[in-house]
Amino acid sequence: MQARHPELLIENCASGAMRMDYAMLSRLHLQSTSDQQNPLLYATISAAAPAAVLPEQAGHWAYPISGTTREEFTLALVNGVLGRLYLSGHLNQMTAAELELVRSALAAHRDLLRELDSLVPIWPLGLPEWDDEWVVLGLTGPESTYLALWHRSAGPAEVTIAGPPGDIRPVFPAEADGWSYTWEGDKLTVRTDVAEPSARVILSKRFDLG
Q1: What is the pLDDT of residue 126?
Q2: In this structure, which long-range contacts are made by residues 48-53, counting pairs with CB atoms below 8 Å and at least 24 apart in sequence?
Q3: In the chain, domain spans
């Protein structure tokens, strides 16, 4: 089939990743990482998945729901950006502002896809626990690191992570919107002043590489 249809992508659902292994993934392109629909719970799955499956094969469901707060909507989309984003939800019921957030997430994801298969996963806070307040996944290359940052409680709050200092650029959403980032040596302090769970994707371009 693949020889006849070389552009066809085949996904391994495997009962919501309950039967995920490379006996199948050596033959198929994508792996759905879960059937979980709660965005706060999916954050841990998205962050931990690259320990078991290549990021370029990790299909993460993003379930933005029309009528939720902007932060809830954004967090649901962040879940999919650092993998292979599976978009779900009733797009036909979304407002113009909600659709613009979806477009922004997809644009950020498509930019990442150009280099996804060359990036290596890192966990600056260690592999996430199911009920962690902060969850962080990084995808790093020679010159830059993408970070998905989830804060799963009400803010304000901050966390410090280690890494090579770099120029911080928002990836999704495109504005900082209540989050700030401060380097002190090789320690990055991430702060959110958002008064509900929230998430961001940022890019750190290393200073020492010009």
Answers
A1: 97
A2: 48/127, 48/128, 49/83, 50/83, 50/121, 50/137, 50/139, 51/121, 51/123, 51/127, 52/20, 53/20, 53/25
A3: 11-117, 119-209
Superfamily in which the 119-209 domain is placed by CATH: Golgi alpha-mannosidase II (2.60.40.1180)
The rounded distance, in Å, linking the Cα atoms of 174 and 154 is: 21
Please enumerate, as own/partner, the contacts of 99-107 that have beta carbons within 8 Å and a separation of 24 or more. Answer: 101/64, 101/70, 101/73, 101/74, 101/77, 101/173, 102/64, 102/77, 104/172, 104/173, 104/174, 105/62, 105/77, 105/78, 105/80, 105/81, 105/172
Query: What stretches in the chain show pLDDT beneath 70?
Result: 14-19, 23, 25, 208-210
Q: Which of 208, 160, 207, 167 is nearest to 188 (CA)?
A: 160
- Give the amino acid at 141: G
34 is written with which tokens?
């879960």
